[in-house]
From TrEMBL:
GO MF annotations, alphabetized: O-acyltransferase activity
Family listed: Belongs to the membrane-bound acyltransferase family. Sterol o-acyltransferase subfamily.
Name used for this protein in its record: O-acyltransferase
PANTHER family the UniProt entry points to: O-ACYLTRANSFERASE, STEROL O-ACYLTRANSFERASE
Keyword terms: Acyltransferase, Endoplasmic reticulum, Membrane, Transferase, Transmembrane, Transmembrane helix
GO annotation terms (biological process): cholesterol metabolic process
Length: 439
């Protein structure tokens, strides 16, 4: 076999063309020995979207997000030296009882000032320049977590500073509480004997898998319905209704995966690393028939904090119904603030679903849920289907309307743009057809 040089190949091709032989472009490439090109499988794999681009985009500007988290952390850490100073002042107040009301007021003002400092900078930064959704969610959720931690430890240690009947926690106890998967402060928690690193790795792999699965659900089943919303001047009501129904099932999948990722995988991984023994972060909320039981068991970490720091202190003064409503309103408002800071607009869909409709279902299911548990469990799950379909429709509609619609002088953080752009119309000659009609 004769090995042809590059010049030989070129001359051979020229000779074939002179003889009138047709040479296709692909045949010419086959004669080329070396050029810049990729392997066939590399080209094929580039067309497969596994959601990595969505994850990378979601954590955009991660350095700015990390800087905001560091700020929140150090503001929270400053409570410990302030407690030491407050205990010194408490010693003086024990010798001069007349100063006690002033000292109490000073302590409450100090905690409030710390809370304001913790909130002000992240909120200002996120409203000034929006972070990408994943980074913003991390910053805002950590902001609320630190706020609740500060209230818990201040409530537990404030009386110690005044009465002197119990020593302040050590800094090791303080820092452990700041990272422990609980919002209730105790000097000691039940601890396991060792860290099972295999369990930690398994839960971290679960978290990664859920993140990629959610990006797949978003790109394949949710985003296509709303990505172009606002590019046309009009949209039919039927198209919106079809989009909402199409988002019901994938929205529920994403919601349940989010629950498993945060309340099970993430909290169990943190608990294992910290040897935190009590892993009952939730109970079997999926079997409940009364909405009040669902709310208590869905997220016990937050529920117990609300019970100890809002509900029980308020009950003697305002009664149980108003105390319960206060809890729901505060929780719904906190969730709405997180969503607003992440998306860049205020659109209280979750506030209405959770803080209004959810509260109304508590008395409705209180007695009937006991008498007809199976039926009301179906109603509970039906509310999950409908509620998630609406959440995963209205928020993307507003998000893409603000992106696709032309700017207007009436644009506002608080006024939904999707109500006016595009114009929502009925289909011409639209009529209602009875789906139960037998032909």
């Amino acid at each position: 076999m004769i090995k042809m040089t590059e010049t030989g190949v070129h001359n051979h091709l020229m000779k074939m063309e002179q003889n009138g032989e047709a040479i296709h472009e692909e045949e010419k490439k086959e004669y080329e020995e070396f050029t810049i090109r990729e392997s066939p499988l590399t080209t094929l794999l580039d067309t497969i979207n596994i959601g990595l681009s969505v994850v990378v985009a979601g954590f955009g500007d991660i350095r700015r997000g990390f800087a905001l988290w560091v700020y929140e952390f150090f503001v929270s850490m400053s409570l410990y030296p302030l407690l030491i100073v407050y205990s010194w002042i408490g010693t003086i107040s024990r010798k001069n009882p007349a100063l006690r009301p002033t000292v109490v007021t000073l302590g409450v003002a100090g905690v409030l000032a710390l809370e304001v400092a913790l909130v002000a900078v992240p909120v200002f930064e996120l409203t000034r320049k929006r972070l990408e959704i994943a980074s913003a969610t991390t910053v805002t959720c950590e902001m609320f977590r630190f706020m609740m931690k500060l209230v818990a430890i201040a409530s537990a240690c404030g009386p110690r500073c005044l009465n002197g009947n119990k020593p302040l926690p050590t800094f090791k106890q303080f820092i452990y509480f700041m990272f422990a998967p609980t919002l209730l402060y105790r000097d000691q928690y039940p601890r396991t004997k060792k860290i099972r690193w295999g369990v930690v790795v398994f839960h971290l792999l679960e978290i990664a898998a859920i993140i990629f699965y959610n990006t797949f659900v978003w790109e394949r089943f949710l985003k296509p319905h709303w990505f172009d919303y606002g590019k046309s001047k009009t949209v039919e009501v039927g198209a919106i209704v079809r989009g909402i129904y199409a988002c019901v099932l994938p929205g529920l999948f994403s919601w349940t995966c989010g629950f498993y990722c945060t309340m099970h995988a993430w909290l169990n991984a943190c608990a294992e690393v910290l040897k935190f023994g009590d892993r009952q972060f939730y109970k079997d909320w999926w079997t409940k028939s009364r909405f009040s039981e669902y709310y208590r068991n869905w997220n016990r970490v937050v529920h117990l904090w609300f019970r100890d720091h809002i509900y029980l202190p308020l009950v003697p003064y305002v009664g149980r119904p108003l105390a319960t409503f206060t809890i729901f309103f505060v929780s719904a408002l906190a969730h709405e603030i997180i969503i607003s800071l992440c998306l860049g607009f205020f659109y209280p869909v979750l506030l209405v679903e959770f803080g209004v409709l959810g509260v109304l279902m508590i008395p409705v299911s209180a007695t009937a849920g006991r008498r007809f548990p199976n039926f009301f469990n179906v109603i509970l799950w039906s509310s999950f289907f409908i509620g998630n379909g609406m959440l995963w429709s209205f928020y993307p509609m507003e998000f893409f309307a603000r992106r696709n619609c032309p700017p207007s002088e009436n644009d506002s953080f608080f006024i939904p743009k999707s109500w006016t752009c595009p114009e929502v119309i009925l289909k011409p000659n639209w009529t209602f057809q009875n789906p139960l009609r037998i032909f």
